[in-house]
Design goal:
Elements lengths: L1 H27 L3 H10 L3 H21 L6 H22 L1
Helix pairs in contact: 1-3, 1-4, 3-4
């Protein structure tokens, strides 16, 4: 039962990391004109949050693959780095 609980908690934390990173990136990562243009093209808060979630999952699992397992905090730092990197790369494509 502990493995299931840990898995659910990890899922919730990764989702929260991705959503917060996406929303913060959308609100503070661009200027006023960029936000207006993004809202006009339909790439608003929901899209940034989903891209942040995808990056958080990628960063978390890359941290697991690289063996950063001594503490769960390292995995969550990997999730934050993955979310921010994915959002930054995604912004360059828009």
């Amino acid at each position: 039962m502990a493995i299931l609980t840990t898995g659910i908690v990890n899922l919730i934390v990764i989702l929260l990391i991705g959503i917060v990173a996406g929303l913060a990136f959308n609100r503070y990562g661009r200027g006023w004109f960029g936000r207006q243009a993004a809202n006009a093209t339909g790439s608003g808060d929901a899209t940034c949050a989903l891209v942040g979630i995808a990056g958080a999952f990628t960063g978390f699992h890359l941290a697991v693959i690289l063996g950063l397992l001594p503490t769960p905090l390292m995995l969550f730092i990997g999730a934050i780095a993955g979310a921010l990197l994915t959002l930054w790369l995604w912004r360059g494509r828009r």
